[in-house]
């Protein structure tokens, strides 16, 4: 291969990995890479974002949607620290991602030069680190090797983020090093003996429950999971913010196991005599703070199947641990033959009935968020992608929107299990850019939206939401950091401090960015406003004003305060 500067070789390596879109904020530390994007502009595009946190969230969303590492570029120092929120989200959500960080020139290292940081220490891998691997490249000839390893590492086992630091002078160094082939994850299968043990546990069970989720799924494994559930008539719940793993309309769907869980489903998890955790991390949110399954030894029999060896046995002493790629695990499970008679048919039917009853909303005035979500579901295409960040407002989305399952349209839910505020807007923009033919809806709280709301300019600049699909942001404005206010009322009733918000006119702000914007304060106004937004031919934002007392999909601030005062 003929020599070219390393910055161009890096772009060629990304193209070889199948990357056609990267996100970032331009920096002087990687000008040679930006020139490489110009050189190969017909094959790969650089989406210039307004802040590195938004760019990193977009790359993480790209990884979730595609199953391949999303790519982000950030400059040194402030750029890298801004981008770290997306890296942390990718780590906790098990999303493949690669962050490239510009570094000071090699002859200035270790002098605390302008914006210098040691990214290996900052992002360094570990049990509770920010990345699976963090490295700095010192040889232009080895740059393609590092890129290939970064993609392999991001994809192998439990997927996650990788960080590569690139000294500025290295990127202008000529190299003839060839790019390396596209990385593919190694496929591990569960051991046959372990599958026999799992079947024996199922045959002995009376009240089994599957909890599915995590990353590494594809359409075929989604179908295999459904066939496994149907063969054995197993109720299936989905882990926190992985509700699109299993078709929510299926008669065996039991609901989502996470924050705001249906109390009846929570009780069902406790009463189960066998839990099959398939692909999902048994973290704090999915286990109700390690109470639905008591740590370290749950009362239920526990089978945990996961791609990452480090995840198995991390918290729970399970009865059976199986390390396997989640796609292969699902395919192996569907081959397990069920006995002719199953004792838990009524148990499974009751789980589905509880889920259906949980979607019957109580009437709330003047603006009923449950009706807002049900209206979205009724009017938007089945393959609509929904995104959100963190906040109590997301409870309505999780409770009332039904996801069609991976086997139908791939990922349709983009939400941070890491609980990162500001995720939803960039994730929606990334989805709209990657899939311009699909409708994408972001639901954001008022505090959540203003974390990354400036990325509306990115959507406008790159034409998101102007194709066959639609891009819609719904801002739920209750004038407070609602989750924090809820906790304040529970722990310190009536003593509000630091959680009130002063908000702009979000609809006017959207119009300033070139979006359609409208204001809604009553339930009956929402459907006409939505129809107008969908017909606008450009991205649209609906500003929903909600009373601060309407705190969650299940309770109010005044009720929480009253309960806390009675307890005191």
What is the mean predicted local confidence, pLDDT? Answer: 95
Coarse shape: globular
Assembly status: single chain
Instruction: Give the beta-strand count.
Output: 20
* Main pleated sheet: 6 strands, parallel
Q: What is the SS-derived class?
A: alpha/beta
User: What percentage of residues falls in helices of 4 or more residues?
Assistant: 25-40%
Nearest-angstrom radius of gyration? 24 Å
What do you see in this structure?
This protein has a six-stranded parallel β-sheet with strand order 3-2-4-5-7-6, with helices on both faces. A six-stranded parallel β-sheet has the order 11-10-9-12-13-14, sandwiched between helices. Strands 16-15-17-18-20-19 form a six-stranded parallel β-sheet, with helices on both faces. Helix 4 links the parallel strand 4 and strand 5 (97-103). The chain has 568 residues and is of the alpha/beta class. The chain folds into three domains: 4-175, Thiamin diphosphate (ThDP)-binding fold, Pyr/PP domains (Rossmann fold, 3-Layer(aba) Sandwich); 192-358, TPP-binding domain (Rossmann fold), CATH 3.40.50.1220; 369-567, Thiamin diphosphate (ThDP)-binding fold, Pyr/PP domains (Rossmann fold). Helix 8 runs parallel beside helix 10. Helices cover 38% and strands 17% of the residues.
